[in-house]
Design brief:
The chain is mainly α and 65 residues long. The protein is built from three helices and no strands. The longest helix is centred in the N-terminal third of the chain and has 25 residues.
C-alpha cells in the first residue's frame, strides 16, 4: 500500500482554527459597537403608563392575581 504524506486532519484543524478566529472577531466587533440609548423627557417620565382596562381586569381574574 502506498502511504499518502498529506494528513487529512490537518485541513480540518485549519478549518476549525479559522472558524474559531472568525467567531472571536465577530464577538469583539459586536462588543465594541455602540448602542443607541432612548432617553425619556421629563414629561414622558411622569406620564401614566398603566391603564386598568377591561382586558387587564379579565387577565387578573382568570389568573387569580
Amino acid at each position: 500500500m502506498s502511504r499518502d504524506d498529506t494528513k487529512p486532519g490537518l485541513e480540518r484543524r485549519q478549518f476549525l482554527k479559522t472558524v474559531g478566529l472568525a467567531s472571536a472577531g465577530a464577538a469583539a466587533i459586536a462588543a465594541t459597537g455602540t448602542e443607541a440609548e432612548a432617553r425619556e423627557t421629563p414629561q414622558e417620565q411622569v406620564k401614566p403608563r398603566y391603564q386598568s382596562s377591561e382586558h387587564v381586569k379579565r387577565y387578573y381574574a382568570l389568573n387569580r392575581l
